[in-house]
Amino acid sequence: MISDNIAKGAQHLADALRYNTTLTTLSLWKNQIGDNGAQHLADALRYNTTLTTLSLWKNQIGDNGAKYLAHAFRNNKTLTTLHLYENQIGDNGTLHLADALQYNTTLTILDLRYNEIGDNGAEHLANVLRNNTTLTTLHLYENQIGDNGAQHLTVALRNNTILSTLNLGRNQIGALGAEHLADALRNNTTLTTLHLSWNKLGVLGAEHLADALRNNTTLTILNLEYNQIGDNGAEHLANALQNNTTLTTLDLKHNEIGKKLEDRLKTLMQRNGQGTKS
Q1: pLDDT recorded at residue 98
Q2: Burial group, residue 189, by CB count within 10 angstroms (0-12, 13-18, 19+)
Q3: Is 208 inside a domain boundary?
Q4: N or C: which end of the chain has fewer CB within 10 A?
Q5: Which domain of life is it from (predicted)?
């Protein structure tokens, strides 16, 4: 009964959105609208021409709800930001969203954190990212894409010329996934921010990323906190940064790095413009 009433509330909002010409941001954080509520909002988005930001965090939206929303923003010309943080979209729902991105020409920020997305979902996103020319920010924090998912995204990053921020924190990515991402970073010229916190990169993963930083000239922010990098991994990064002058922020908190290497990395980051966090 409660869920039905919430869905009806979403329907009332959707009815108003069809003809509203002033509202640009709608946030429905933690309202349990579910798939039915998502369907009502999606129907409204087919007609609305002013909404630019839609936040549906923690709303128990599954793959069916994602399908409804995907159908709506396939042709929507105004929505630029879609937050779907902490729902249950999964790989199937991600497929629907990826299909829509092939046609959508306005969405620039897609937030899919905490959505039970695995390597298949990452592959769906990678397939569309190869040719997408509008999405600049993709948040995939706290999913389960793993090394295989990282490899799929790597292939996309070799061709993508617009994505500037990629968040892959807490995704069970190890040294092999870091190697794949490093391969992409060597030639990618658009990515400026990469978040890899709370993964399992270790010393070897840090070494792979360090090798890429010797050639990369666009990445400015790299977050590697909680990755068991240690002094050996930090030394690889410090050696690479001797010649890299574009990375300005390096987050290495909680990696058991000694003070000597901390100071060395801080000096290198200060030379580049900001500082390191450790």
Answers
A1: 98
A2: exposed
A3: yes
A4: N
A5: Eukaryota
Read off the tokens for 26: 């709608």
pLDDT value at residue 8: 77
Average pLDDT for residues 53-73, to the nearest whole number?
A: 97
Picking from 197, 153, 204, the residue whose alpha carbon sits closest to that of residue 176 is 204
Closest listed residue to residue 116, CA positions, set 63, 76, 68, 64: 63
pLDDT at 1: 38
On whether both 100 and 151 belong to a single domain, the answer is: no
CA–CA separation, 225 vs 251, rounded Å? 6
The kind and range of the H/E element at 222 are strand 221-223
Locate 190 and state its tokens.
């658009």
The percent of the chain in helix, strand and coil, each rounded to the nearest 5, is 45, 10, 45
* Contact status, residue 219 vs residue 194, Cβ threshold 8 Å: yes
Total Cβ atoms within 10 A of residue 16: 12
**Single-letter code of the amino acid located at 212:** A
Helices assigned H by DSSP within 108-194: 119-129, 146-159, 175-187
Q: What is the pTM of this model?
A: 0.95
The mean pLDDT of 176-193, rounded to a whole number, is 97
Range of the domain at 187: 122-130+147-162+174-278
SS3 249: strand
Q: How far apart are CA 150 and CA 177, in angstroms?
A: 5
Q: Which residue has the tokens 């010409």?
A: 21
Distance (Å, whole) CA 208 – CA 211: 5
Angle at CA 193, nearest 5°, toward 185 and 140?
A: 95
